[in-house]
Amino acid sequence: MKKTLWIIIGILLVLVVGAAALLSVDFNRLGKQAYYAEITKSDHITEDKDASGVVYKTYHYKLPAYDKNGNKKNAHFHCF
């Protein structure tokens, strides 16, 4: 009975720790460097329609970005 109880507690502990890690860690950001940019205006805007006919805009940007040490890198990105 004691052995079974400790196995159940161990499994529950692993599940709780795993769930906490999945909720708190952004796995897409691991090992990536942060850059900072000031967005003043969009280079160009495109309008598209989704499958249901709703029109949405996409803003495209090309601008300089800097890391925490002031090193410059050209950034290209878009947002909806």
Automatic annotation (TrEMBL):
InterPro entries hit by this protein: DUF1093, YxeA-like_sf
Stated name of the protein: DUF1093 domain-containing protein
